[in-house]
Write a structure and sequence with these properties.
single chain; alpha+beta; 60s Ribosomal Protein L30, Chain: A; six-stranded mixed sheet; 6 strands; 29% strand; globular; YjgF/YER057c/UK114
């Protein structure tokens, strides 16, 4: 088996090693990004929902940048939300700050009962630029 081409954002490798997963894997021209939550540098949840969603996007964008990509390269998005009936409007008013212009990526939204203390998680698949080594 060929070694995985793992992409780590700057300054968060210890967090991923502690939790035993890769933030993103580059494979066959695509970047598969693990779900990103609104965690602080120590991994704890940001308590304010709006700030938590912004942090999740900031964490996602740090991984995309480490791979030489941006949100413009995102093809598919999956979001997970605890209690979406009460939180959707708050979350969705923040999304355009990060989403960019049409055409938009595909989207699947999933309501969940638990996210390890978080209320929002975003997972994406993006195009990975050729010839850009993981940092």
């Amino acid at each position: 088996m060929q070694a995985r081409d793992v992409v780590f954002p700057s300054g968060r490798q210890a967090l991923y090693e502690r939790n035993r997963y890769s933030p993103a894997i580059r494979s066959n021209g695509f970047l598969f990004v693990s779900g990103q939550v609104g965690s602080r540098e120590d991994g704890s949840p940001e308590p304010d929902l709006e700030a938590q969603v912004r942090r999740a996007f900031d964490n996602l964008n740090a991984i995309l940048a480490a791979a030489g990509s941006s949100f413009d390269d995102v093809i598919d998005v999956t979001i997970f939300m605890v209690d979406p009936a009460s939180k959707f409007e708050t979350v969705w008013k923040i999304v355009p700050e990060y989403w960019g212009q049409a055409p938009y990526p595909t989207l699947t939204g999933v309501g969940v009962t638990w996210l390890y203390g978080f209320d929002f998680e975003i997972k994406v698949i993006a195009r990975a630029p050729e010839g850009v080594a993981a940092r």
